[in-house]
Amino acid sequence: MASTYRADGAVGYGREGNPTWSALEQALGDLESAQALALASGMAAITAVLDLLPVGARVVAPEVPYTLTAVRLRELHAAGRLHVQFVPTENLNAVRAALPADLVWLETPSNPLMRITDLAATITLAHEHGARVVVDNTFATPLLQRPLDLGADIAMASGTKYIAGHSDALLGVLTTRDAELREQLRQRRSLLGLNPGTMEAWLALRGLRTMGLRVRAASANAEEIARRLTTHPAVAQVLYPFLPDHPGATIARSQMRAGGAMVSIVLHGDADRADAVCRATRLWSFATSLGGIESTLERRRRWPSESEQVPETLIRLSVGAEDVNDLWRDLDAALRH
Ligand SMILES: *Cc1c(COP(=O)(O)O)cnc(C)c1O
User: Among 220, 212, 204, 188, which residue's Cα sits nearest to residue 327?
Assistant: First the structure.
């Protein structure tokens, strides 16, 4: 914990570097055979990447990305700073029609519609047209999906979620195998003040020690709960990439080691009914955010910024590492309530 360093050492000032950040970055980089940069939050990571682009740069982004990715890109487009096209990236022809571009932003599985983009094919196509590719890998984590191996220039994650893993720290992560690009992003971090807190970096470093155990357990729980929900009378639709009827199931199975721990469900009935379900659970907390060891759920459209393409009764489930039968009993009771 230091903002001030003695002169002539490795670090000049606390906004530039910190031994705890370096230890976290070493571990995160090793996970992806890459170089990592830790930032203040997922949004800070997104800000650093977008700030690299020149005025008027062309960006292709998913039709329904993480809600604040969309909000920020729309702002930059409206200000004339960037030219942004939102396209369904799960459709390769839609991406092709939007190229050429300077940057293609991908997110798979996407938050909260769980759409699956074919990373290898889309990255190859983007590179053929001279675009750099960034993949928001928050939902999958580097343990289940490795965008850099599939050619992405940058993998991005909200470290707030599975990496820190205990709902107690905000953090962002960028990884790349391009040392020059990493240095450019590091400069953005310093100049824009996007640096992580030391305590947060330490919490994430400790959280990383159990990420394998947590993600494996939570993903197995999610797959089981998704499967059980498919026959639940209150549920109209279950969105989970490893369910056989998911439109992206084949691609998901080819690029992910497991389906992950996020499940979205669309309920019969109206928004009030979906809100009532969120308030009726006892083990699952009604809360936004995701990726903690404890399960949370929320109706996404309670946020005015959420896309209108997200159904009013969609509940996003962040499945944790609790006992799967406890989770099921609690959720089933709330749905029947
Ligand atoms: C939460 C989230 C973010 C933003 O991360 P913060 O750490 O909350 O700033 C970005 N992308 C996805 C997919 C997320 O779930």
Answer: 220
